[in-house]
Amino acid sequence: MIRGITKRWMLNTLSVIFTIIVLIVVSLILIVTYVFQNSVETQLNAACNELSLVFSGYTSDSYNDFTSAARDYVENFDQKEKMGVMVINPAGRVVITSTGFVPSESEKMPDFEDAKKRKDGYAFWSGKLSSGEPAMSETRVITNENDAIVGAIRYIVSMEPINSRILLADSAIILIGVIMLTLVVISGLLFIRSIVKPIRRLSETAAQIAQGDFSASEKIEHKYDDEIGDLCKAVSNMAKDLQTTEQMKNDFISRVSHELRTPLTAIKGWAETMQLSERGTLDRRTFDRGMSVIIKESARLTGIVEELLDFGRIQSGRMVLINEKMDILAEFDETIYMLKERASEAGVHLLYDEDDSIYPPIYGDRNRLRQVFINVLDNAIKYTPKGGVVAAQVIYSKDEPDVIKIVVTDSGCGIAPEDLPRVKEKFYKANQKVGGSGIGLAVADEIMNLHHGSLNIESGVGVGTTVTLTFPIYKEGQEKQMPENQNIKL
After folding, report:
1. Residue 24 has pLDDT above 90, yes or no
2. How many structural domains compose the chain?
3. How many CB atoms lie within 10 A of CB 50?
4. In this structure, are 343 and 481 located in the same domain?
5. Contacts of 245 (CB under 8 A, 6+ apart)
6. Do 466 and 408 contact (CB within 8 A), yes or no?
7. Is residue 436 pLDDT above 60, yes or no?
8. pTM of this structure
């Protein structure tokens, strides 16, 4: 059953081509028929025109003189092989023929009757003789100086040979038309097949990919260097990207599960220890240590859950920002103070010189921006070995009066060149040895984009990493363009 692109091609393109070919064939048949018939008419007209020379100045009233002159003309007629010549008396009876055979008196000669009525004395006829043979004739009457008809000369040509030639030519034209149409159909079907077949394979492969079989993309053939080839490459690349994303998602789930299990295990262990201990037998030091671990791991759990919630908002395409005019320097100072103890416990030197300068305000969500600061500083501390240095500074210069920059530099392990372009992608985690879910930096980057800022990373393996946060300064009337409590689509 013909369907799809092939059906549309046959209904649209092929039908138009078929109509054009039929019109061309019909037109050629009509032209060939006209040319052959016109050639016969031309020969008849040329023969009749000779009579104006043969019988010019004819003045005799005698029928016998006319018959004698006509007989000489017929005997000396040099086109007897092409056409027949008849001499007709005024009564309409054939008296002399070039073949020597006089036609039956019942044979009608309408061109003779018409020639007698016409002023120019000419008449043309085309039709069938009484025998059924197709013929074409032309008659010219001969008059004397008194305009009296003394006789007529009729030229007649059998159309059977001509019609045979016309039929042969028409058959050749029709055959050529059929061959052309056949070639068009065959070439069209081959071309359509070259499109439909790979598309069907791509459709089957896409269905397999949709069911999770990403290895099906390896079966895609890249035969054509055209749009079909581009489509094959696109589907193949899509499958590879989906496979990579699926693997990253699985790794992400595994990491998150591990990140959740570790604090939960610690909380559960210390809770069971405190519960199973006899009342009053647990010393204060052990109790305080257990409560400290529970509080610390609970805070860690809260951070992971908040990170997952933010990630869910990113995935759903919506996040709420509570924007206000704020002092970014004060917020960053507070974040540094919060993480000093964390850096000290990790054996990392956190360097930051508090600036007494007054910087212009920015417009944004202080809680979300603090989340960005914590994420960037925490990553710098986490990836810097013991004894390493993390340096932070706030920059506002006259060279760039419209922005404020926060630069955080560490002396950690750095990021490989192949991983650097992807570290801000969802699910992606360059260093699997260090804990973390791998979505914090993606969330931080989205938050910066919402504030019309940017998060840029420069790094080198074994050299360290530099993260630059760029914020546009507050401009009058900005709160009208970005109202508070606005739902901003990511």
Report:
1. yes
2. 3
3. 16
4. yes
5. 427
6. yes
7. no
8. 0.51
